[in-house]
């Protein structure tokens, strides 16, 4: 007997292991999709309350609100860890979270201030839920006002640390100046949250040629203490001591005083010397987030650090960002990658039209508005080549995030 009423299907993407409710007329790619019959309407607003989607990034605001309304179904032995990843601008925080998630949910660019506000990403492994808090780069109020960054750039990292169980401090090993010390505003936040577990993430280690440089960097950032245990600096192979050093050393010993032995690589810190590091890190991870090196070890560490606690979010939720926020985030990322100097920071991005048709194809129109005509000219590029590249790359990323075909149109005009 044929079932009464229309029959819809769950379209399962075998590669990505997700499901979506769509009509059976969806154009399928051989070997990638399988259809599972189900009864009822395809609209999420009309879905029976007992139906729950698998882990997806919702394509519409209605789906997003529905997913947020779901209460988490607690596993038998739930474990939870809220992790704030903090650091100065452009050290690779968002890239790391994408790799930890195995799903792109954060925007990434080589330019600073890509992340403008806190964003959450939810990772599930068995009975363990990890909530990653991606934060803007640490800046002070003066810097924020100078570059018109907005209040969220200053206060969001502080809020993230207050709501976190663990704090990951990320440093760029390839930056000669920033790898030697932890920024003062970040040190202040660590002192304020010193009761919370913290760990150091040294990123871009593949760009350092010298192992000694890396060890010196870690020694400075940790003040020579990791997990409460003092660490030793590597001694030079062939220490050289001149006659004056030898005479001074002998004289000091005769006077019963200890002096610094620079030839052996040891140092005695003055009580008045400012602190450049944080001695309370429990672990140090040396990684290359871009190459996914060392990321698995960090993920395993976080899974083990999770504590018995009920989950905060339903397992279906991947990120707390709604579809429109994700789309504008991706377009801004591509603009940052393709436009130089101050131009990307003087363009406003907004969603003008958003619709998912009966075949599951996402249709979007996103408007890019410039404060000056020259910014619009740069955004469009010679014969429209720049905006075409931005649109093509944005479309590809959105298709990967939402796991569907995307039709994207970018409109550029004067603000």
CATH H-tier superfamily of the largest domain: P-loop containing nucleotide triphosphate hydrolases
Number of strands: 15
Structural class: alpha/beta
| Shape by Cα distribution | globular
β-sheet strand percentage: 15-25%
CATH architectural designation of the largest domain = 3-Layer(aba) Sandwich
Query: For the report, how would you describe the main beta sheet?
Result: 7 strands, mixed
Number of domains: 3
Supply the CATH class of the largest domain: Alpha Beta
Mean pLDDT comes to 77
Termini separation comes to: 60 Å
Q: Which regions have little confidence, pLDDT < 50, spanning 5+ residues?
A: 1-49, 139-151, 257-272
Run of helices and strands: EEEHEHEEHHEHEHEEHEHEHEEHHE
Helical content (DSSP H or I, runs of 4+): 25-40%
Assembly level: single chain
Q: How many DSSP H or I helices?
A: 11
Rg over C-alpha atoms, rounded to the nearest angstrom: 26 Å
User: What do we call the CATH topology of the largest domain?
Assistant: Rossmann fold
Features:
GMP Synthetase, Chain A, domain 3; alpha/beta; seven-stranded mixed beta sheet; disordered N terminus; 3 domains; Rossmann fold
Summarize the structure.
With 415 residues, the chain is α/β, with parallel strands linked by helices. It has helices spanning 61-69, 93-101, 141-146, 152-162, 184-192, 211-222, 243-254, 295-305, 323-338, 373-380, 385-402, and strands spanning 7-13, 18-22, 33-39, 79-87, 119-125, 128-134, 166-172, 197-203, 225-226, 229-230, 284-286, 307-308, 347-356, 362-370, 406-414. Strands 4, 5, 6, 7, 8, 11 and 12 form a seven-stranded mixed sheet that branches. A three-stranded antiparallel sheet has the order 2-1-3, with no helix packed on it.
């Amino acid at each position: 007997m044929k079932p009464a009423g229309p029959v819809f299907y769950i379209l399962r993407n075998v590669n990505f292991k997700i499901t979506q409710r769509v009509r059976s007329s969806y154009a399928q790619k051989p070997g990638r999709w399988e259809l599972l019959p189900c009864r009822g309407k395809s609209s999420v607003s009309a879905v029976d309350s007992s139906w729950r989607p698998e882990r997806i990034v919702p394509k519409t605001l209605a789906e997003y609100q529905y997913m947020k309304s779901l209460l988490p179904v607690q596993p038998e032995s739930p474990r939870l860890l809220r992790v704030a990843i903090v650091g100065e601008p452009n050290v690779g925080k968002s890239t790391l979270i994408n790799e930890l998630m195995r799903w792109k949910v954060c925007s990434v660019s080589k330019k600073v201030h890509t992340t403008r506000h806190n964003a959450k990403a939810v990772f599930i492994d068995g009975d363990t839920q990890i909530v990653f808090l991606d934060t803007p780069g640490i800046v002070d109020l003066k810097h924020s006002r100078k570059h018109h960054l907005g209040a969220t750039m200053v206060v969001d990292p502080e809020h993230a640390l207050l709501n976190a169980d663990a704090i990951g401090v990320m440093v760029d090993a390839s930056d000669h100046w920033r790898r030697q010390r932890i920024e003062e505003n970040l040190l202040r936040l660590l002192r304020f949250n010193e009761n919370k577990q913290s760990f150091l993430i040294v990123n871009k280690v593949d760009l350092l040629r010298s192992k000694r440089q890396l060890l010196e960097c870690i020694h400075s950032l940790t003040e020579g203490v990791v997990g409460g245990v003092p660490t030793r600096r590597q001694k030079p192979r062939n220490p050289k001591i001149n006659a004056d050093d030898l005479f001074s050393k002998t004289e000091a010993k005769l006077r019963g005083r200890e002096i610094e032995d620079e030839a052996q690589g040891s140092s005695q810190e003055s009580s008045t010397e400012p602190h450049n590091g944080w001695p309370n890190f429990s672990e140090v991870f040396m990684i290359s987030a871009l190459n996914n090196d060392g990321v698995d070890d960090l993920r395993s560490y976080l899974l083990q650090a999770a504590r018995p606690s009920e989950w905060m979010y339903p397992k279906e939720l991947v990120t707390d960002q709604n579809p429109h926020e994700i789309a504008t985030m991706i377009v801004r990322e591509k603009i940052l990658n393709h436009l130089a100097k101050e131009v990307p920071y003087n363009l406003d991005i907004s969603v003008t039209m958003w619709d998912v048709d009966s075949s599951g194809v996402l249709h979007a129109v996103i408007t890019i508005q410039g404060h000056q005509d020259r910014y619009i000219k740069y955004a469009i590029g010679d014969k429209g080549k720049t905006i075409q590249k931005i649109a093509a790359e944005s479309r590809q990323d959105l298709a990967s995030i939402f796991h569907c075909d995307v039709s994207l149109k970018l409109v550029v005009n004067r603000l």
